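Hello Y.,

Per our agreement to keep a running log of every chain we model this quarter, I'm adding this entry. I've kept the format consistent with earlier entries: sequence first, then predicted structure.
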Amino acid sequence: MMSKKKSTLAKQEELSESELFAEASLSASFMGASLADSFNSAILPKAELCDVASALSDQIKTIQDGDMQPIEAMLISQAHALQTMFVTLGRMAASKAQLAQYTAFMNMALKAQSQSRATIQALVELKYPKQIAFVKQANIAHGHQQVNNGTTAQNDATLGEQPRAEKIPNIISNELLEVKNGNKKMDRRTTRSAVAKNKAMATVAT
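Predicted structure for the entry above:
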């Protein structure tokens, strides 16, 4: 770590003053430290801005390497601080006699409580991420139906070419049957013997 800081300092010495300011303006650690210094100056007046930026840069590197303990610590401290604000503002609201002041302080108290709850929820999700369940869809239908659960490309790669339904002819031939003995067709128009008229059914005379 010390060798890396020395190389960084050596690189900064090679840059001009304008380049140093340009690099600092795009540095996440320096800009975050400058904002924190605006609020910390009354609490920690001896803290130097560059030292705060360096400490913040080290913490950023720790988190980027996969160690989330600094984030967990920050969320816990934020939740406690917001809880303290909620209790303090709630007590101040209870001491107000006028409705406008009571409403203003109570609204701020409830906002602090809501932010504390959201911070705790973010901490829980960080510690125990939600498990994403991948459920394969089941295609269920009544009656006869072919279900292909997967793409054609996948089926072709695993099972080969997709089976294709054979075409069944739905047209019945209307031709006359042929006699097996020879190629002659059955002729239904064969000569029939004359049938005598039924005299009983003869026309009755007028």
